[in-house]
Structures are given as structure tokens and as C-alpha cells.
Amino acid sequence: MRTGVRSYWWFLAPALVVVAGVIVIPWAFTLWMSVHEWKPGGAIAYVGPSNYARLVSDPRFSEALVRTLYYSALAVFLPLVLGTLAALAFHEQFPMRGFLRGVFVMPMMATPVAIAVVWTMIFQPQLGVANYLLSLIGIPPQLWVFAPNTVIPSLVLVETWQWTPLVMLIVLGGLAAIPTEPYEGAQIDGASAFQRFVHITFPLIRPFLMVAVLLRLIDALKSFDIIFAMTQGGPGNASETINLYLYQTAFAYYDVGYGSAIASVFFVIIVALSLAALWLRSRAAWMAEPVGDAS
User: Is the peptide bond before 235 cis (omega within 30 degrees of 0)?
Assistant: First the structure.
């Protein structure tokens, strides 16, 4: 019996080696580097927790943290709402439903740089399609990603366009798993469509919504490519999230030790928020309220 148990380790060993090489060792090196000062070409010097102490008094870091949380909150909320509405619409039977579903999920397949190029042209203040469409309904032209007060919402709009289909697919899976009996009982009791959604649909898809929240939260927190390709953190520092600040610190200013400290703190923030989302996910009830309450 013991021999059989030991034999399993030979099957696990390749995966453990890959995990150690790709995840554990790089993070251990990052933590080690975060307590050192090093610039490429120079000597490595131990500085203890001074890099972390710099974060406390670094206004650029605190501003980037606030922007990251603001961006992530919008980039989770909007796709969640719109994706749920889209899932409810595509769950109904209508002609060409399968084809339209395929069209709706196409933004997920595009590469981030291509998306950034297209949306930069759309947001162009003079010749962009966005301002042209606004002019048709009498709204004055906007600067979009070229103004500090609109750059974050504009970037969130791109994020929402790309990842709303993901939320839709997750919620569609939840809707497909709901039995028809609760709806039949609710209709017999005279419940309206809104009451059926509140008392039956929403409680039963809540675990799927929490999965969507968790996936979108992690993805939004680490968003880098589209923001960098569209704004490089500008105008000024108006769209500089922690990821961009980390990139500038480590690879533009070559302050690798301080950049490692930023990465370590940001990793802790991501883990904390992910654990909070997992806790909320575990609290989501799988059973709907009694159908009788919907009447």
C-alpha cells in the first residue's frame, strides 16, 4: 500500500517542478529582492524594510492604488450587470439565437493590442466614431482617453466591451441549470416576471455571479496591456495603475528593489481581495427562496 502511495509522487513530480520553477521560485526571488537595493550594472545592497517604508510616504503609489481600485470596481460592476442582462436575453428562444451568441462573444477573442489600437481611433476627439455618434444625439464631443477626468471611465468602457461576454457565458451556464418547476409554480401563484427574477432566478444564479465577480476582479486588478497600449499611464499620471507604476519603476527607472516591494504589496492586496470574493462566493445560497414568497 505504501509503495502504491509513493508511486503517485512520480506523476506529481513534473507538475510540482513546473509550479516551483514558474511560480514559487520567482516569487521567492521577488520577496528577497524587495529587501535589497539593486540597479542593473550595480551591486546588490541589503536595505531591510526601507523599500516598504518608502511605499507609505510615496504619493504616486497611493494615487496609483486608488486608481487601480476605482478602475477595478467599475470593470467588475459594469460587465456583471450588462453580462447578466445579456444572459437573460440570450436565454430566451428567438430566431438566430446561436449565431447572435457567437457574434456577442467575439470581443473576447481579440488581442489586447489590436483592441487598444481600434478603440484609440474610436476615441480620437476630431475624427473618432465615438464623438460622431454623440453628435447625432446632440451631445458635445468628449476627449475620452485624452483628458484626465474621462480617461479611467473610457478605459473601463473598453474593458466592459471585451469582457461582458465572459460574464454572459458564466450566467448562461447558471440559467441552463435552473429547473423549470419553480417557474411553473410561481406562474400558477400569479408571480410577475420581476418577482420570478428576484425570488427564483437571482438566488439560483448568485453562485455563478460570484464566480464571475472573482474572475473579473482578478483580471481587472492585473490589467496592464490595454491601458499601456492606449495611454501609457497618461495624460500625466491620470491612468497610471499600480501595474504601470510597477513597470515604470522596475523597467524604466531600473529601481528593481523598490519595484519588487511594490509587486509584493500588490500581490498581498490581490490575495486579500480574492479571499474576500471567495468568502462571499461560499456565502452565496444555492437554493432559491420559497416560491410562495414571490406571490
Answer: yes
- DSSP SS3 for 57: coil
C-alpha cell at 63: 494615487
| Cα separation, 86 vs 191, whole angstroms | 23
Q: Tens-digit pLDDT profile for the chain (295 aa)? A: 455 556 777 888 888 888 888 888 888 899 999 999 988 777 889 998 999 999 999 999 999 999 999 999 999 999 999 999 999 999 888 888 889 988 999 999 889 999 999 999 999 999 899 999 999 999 999 999 999 999 999 999 999 999 999 999 999 998 988 888 888 888 888 888 888 888 888 888 988 998 899 899 989 998 999 999 999 998 989 999 999 999 999 888 889 999 999 999 999 998 898 888 888 777 765 444 444 444 4
Task: Check the CA dihedral 69-75-78-84 and report its sign.
Answer: negative
| Closest residue by Cα to residue 199 from 81, 280, 287 | 287
Distance of alpha carbon 44 from alpha carbon 29, whole angstroms: 13
Are residues 294 and 196 in contact, defined by beta-carbon separation less than 8 angstroms? Answer: yes
Residue 294 · residue 195 · CB < 8 Å: yes
End-to-end CA distance of the chain: 59
Select 51-294's CATH number: 3.40.50.880, 3.30.530.20, 1.10.3720.10, 1.10.10.410: 1.10.3720.10
